């Protein structure tokens, strides 16, 4: 090593990992050897064993104290070092050996709790960032290192490749997956001359671009620097034990000095230091924290350090990404709108059949939506796919196109209404034509996780008082989700640098937790007090940057982790306080001369056993608030959830019928109203009645009584009332041969009211009840979906 250079961190970590277990083994052997020698009548040999164990513990202990002082911290180890040295000076060797074992045990437990994965974000560089690129010069294409790229170079980006540097598109069209930077799963279509950023993925055909910056000065390299800088500037964790030791250490030293001065013998001072050895801090607090880590891991939460668990236990601010964290991160169908004469289910089946052979993210969403509804798909023929535009295929003898479409100025009213809705909902519109005629539109959104509202309520009750969302998405959909979830603040259209700045600002005023899942979230995760990565589907980079990784794709595990952290920290604190209180009493007895150093060490061991047993309570949960439903009720929840999925698109009939009435088209409105009434009387109202008579009584016991479903029962009654009212209107129409003018106002009120009520009712049942089957586990079974 060059003189003056810092030791290799990896080598230092390997050295520490080998020293800690060796220290524990050697001190235990020395203590046991001395006890055996003493029993066999060899006191000299016993003292030799105990002296060796004490000296063995002194060497690394002094190193740990010096290292802590260099960092500006004086921790619990200092009292232990003074006690070890004191026992040698006054010939209390057994006490020294006992303290050595306690110190080695505490260090081993603390090390087990604090070892964490590397935060150098190598995955940002190794997993995603390209090493080379293809550069075109006239008619020649050469492969060069990205370090050789300069502004003005023409680069060729193949399908599936990562854009190496910032630049401008120089091809007619480029289809890009920007989720690496923005988190949004929808593909973006750019044209000639439009700006493109490094780090995004080419989701279409080969295109060319002109570089406008070097790799070092481009967007992706900036994300890497942000993450590294944020990780480097994160303040070291001040552990609970060190905070208590800050006042306990001077108190112990003062009392020892007084005992020495009053008695005139150093033995009493050593006795005070022996019983003052903060083993409740060295042992009990780490035991509680390690127990919390173990319990969290059983819930699918990997917490990489005891410090992260402690910080999570007293955090008050939660900052969240939207896509993949609060939402599913995958497009899903929100509605199907059809032209007059077409069936919504058939439009979805035709579109999904054509899209089966496409690799586009939206095509996969359509196929998944069709499979969820158990639709039978046909294999397409004569397939022609144009990246960024869509696909055309022959399905069951009909020519079907699925994709984007520029509507003409004379587009039908229903199509223009779809565009207006998509802008309000933040949805992507997939247009479907059949034999050259515009037949329907499928609106795709990134849906809110069903468990998100319930999880955020649990987090608030666990002590978080500020919930903030950061997203690269547009303001309108972001604010809509914020309103639904009751968030305190929403920041939209955020770049990775913006996210880091916001997290730093929140961290200045409170202990802040950041939750994310993408590469674009990695810098913010590193900047937060505690970074939490959705690791099941999230990027490797976000998991590397995080202190906590949720290994399952379930947001409710974050609430579990918060509750476990709160409980573990509380148990650690009470164990430490009770243990130190007992130590204070023992210190008083030692100062009065009633306790010798050896007896003090044994007394300290008794205190340790008591507080360790208390700390082990962190392995168990409190009376759980998780709702465990019987298997029969869970099957019932799955059944009604499936029925919701089947009925969801049919709800749009209510709104469409109202629009026909408002447009003054009575003949089509009458036909549509009859279809609505058939749907209500044959499908929806029987479903609601079955929920009321079968599901809600079954949920009464798991939810703590019938009052838990009383509000929803009242909604059932209102749905039934409006459904019967519409049925009465239909009978009047059938008997009179048409709609009377005096029926229009009430029909509109019923249709729009029932549509809004059903949408709300479906969401409430899915969030409050159906998630019990979808996200909860029965103790004796694996997680189910």
TrEMBL record:
Species assigned in the record: Rhodococcus zopfii
Query: What is the membrane topology listed in the Swiss-Prot or TrEMBL record?
Result: Multi-pass membrane protein
What the record says about family reads:
Belongs to the cation transport ATPase (P-type) (TC 3.A.3) family. Type IB subfamily.
Q: Which UniProt keywords apply?
A: ATP-binding, Cell membrane, Membrane, Metal-binding, Nucleotide-binding, Translocase, Transmembrane, Transmembrane helix
Q: What transmembrane ranges does the database entry give?
A: 21-42, 48-67, 74-90, 244-263, 269-290
Keyword Transmembrane helix on entry: yes
Gene that encodes the chain? cadA
Limits of the Hemerythrin-like domain: 636-773
Compartments reported by the entry:
Cell membrane
Q: Which domain of life is it from?
A: Bacteria
Name of one Pfam family that matches: Hydrolase
What does UniProt list as this organism's lineage? Bacteria, Bacillati, Actinomycetota, Actinomycetes, Mycobacteriales
Record-given protein name: Cadmium-translocating P-type ATPase
Q: Which InterPro entries match?
A: ATPase_P-typ_cyto_dom_N (IPR023299), ATPase_P-typ_P_site (IPR018303), ATPase_P-typ_TM_dom_sf (IPR023298), ATPase_P-typ_transduc_dom_A_sf (IPR008250), ATPase_P-type_domA (IPR059000), Cation_Transport_ATPase_IB (IPR051014), HAD-like_sf (IPR036412), HAD_sf (IPR023214)
What are the residue boundaries of the P-type ATPase A domain, all occurrences included?
129-227
